[in-house]
Specification:
The protein is 54% helix and 9% strand. It is globular and about 70 Å long. With 334 residues, it is α/β, with parallel strands linked by helices. The protein binds zinc ion.
Length: 334
């Protein structure tokens, strides 16, 4: 009998579900893969498709024609649907294009797969056109909608697909992924991990182009130190910002880092795991956790989410820096 495995680090729930669905023969024809950008959504789909298509008894073998083509991303039966260059919306025409090929027999592997990138960018008529495919799914066709937010999809789409979530990885899991990708263990990699918010794909991107990574991490370190050191006041906290951050986009990146650090602090407080993402040592996170109350760390984290959600609006850097600093300072005192 065929035996299935999925070679994935982390994403335990998704992995467990797909392995039992493969072994039990109850895969659904439609999945919504929800998770942060870089959190392994594409890797999950790729590994799953390999397992589904593989000709070996121990699937995926990584060596048969199906595995090799899927790994290399050159399988003609896998169709990736995404917004046109420079466009933010997935239009109804793109979805209608699926109708042209969906009924044709697969050529490379035993089925066809359609991957909808940024599925939440399908406009309403595109989603409605898509719905028709869902309602009468052709045989041997699988749909994967990739999204950061399944709630942005129509309820009718959500109710006809299974939602599978990818999860953030902890430091050790990230190291395992980056080891697998052959990325050497050095300071640059450490910074990329800290900046990645638990998303391995993001860590890879930062590692590859990350000249700024060190600078941003350094700024975030200084903010955390200032925020969680006893005896500092609001004005000094704002000063630390002004000294280390000059532009709004830098501010947002540093705040995203600060949020990762706060999540570590929450983890420590809950005693949930001995793994941190931002802090290289668990002890450092533990030390900081002593200087902030449980409710303050949650409140500060919420305020940062709020601030980051308005950061798409063009902001005057000086004003933004002062506003962010001031609101975060107040939140952390609760
Ligand atoms: Zn194979």
């Amino acid at each position: 009998m065929k035996k299935y495995t999925l070679d994935l680090v982390g994403c335990d729930h998704a992995k467990e579900y797909f392995i039992s669905a493969l072994n039990g023969g109850y895969l659904s024809h439609a999945y919504i893969i929800e998770g942060a950008s870089g959190s392994g959504r594409h890797t999950l789909i790729k590994e799953l498709l390999k397992a589904m298509a593989c000709e070996s008894d121990n699937a995926p073998c990584g060596e048969c024609g199906c595995c090799v083509r899927l790994e290399a991303g050159v399988c003609v039966d896998v169709h990736v649907i995404k917004a046109a260059e420079g466009k933010t919306e997935l239009t109804v025409d793109l979805i209608r294009g699926i109708y042209d090929s969906v009924g044709l027999m697969p050529a490379d592997i035993p089925f066809k797969a359609y991957i909808i990138e940024d599925g939440d960018k399908m406009n309403r008529s595109a989603q409605n056109a898509f719905l028709k495919l869902f309602e009468e799914p052709p045989e041997n066709v699988y749909f994967f909608i990739i999204t950061t937010d399944a709630q942005a999809l129509l309820p009718t789409i959500r109710s006809r697909a299974l939602i599978i979530r990818t999860e953030r990885l902890d430091r050790e899991q990230m190291k395992a992924v980056l080891d697998k990708k052959g990325i050497p263990d050095n300071k640059k990699r450490e910074d990329a991990i800290a900046l990645s918010n638990g998303c391995a794909g993001e860590a890879m991107r930062i590692y590859e182009d990350g000249a700024d990574a060190v600078k941003l991490r350094d700024a975030a370190d200084k903010l955390i130190k200032a925020l969680l050191s006893p005896g500092l006041d609001k004005l000094s906290f704002i000063n630390v910002h002004q000294k280390n951050i000059k532009k709004t986009d830098e501010l947002c990146k540093v705040y995203a880092l600060l949020q990762t650090a706060l999540r570590d602090v929450i983890t420590v407080k809950l005693g949930a795991t001995e793994q941190t993402v931002y802090f290289t040592n668990y002890e450092d996170a533990e030390e900081y956790s002593l200087h902030i109350s449980d409710s303050a760390v949650i409140k500060t984290n919420d305020v940062i989410s709020e601030l980051l959600s308005i950061s798409d609006v063009p902001l005057n850097p000086t004003l933004a820096i002062t506003e962010f600093a001031s609101r975060v300072w107040d939140a952390h005192l609760i």
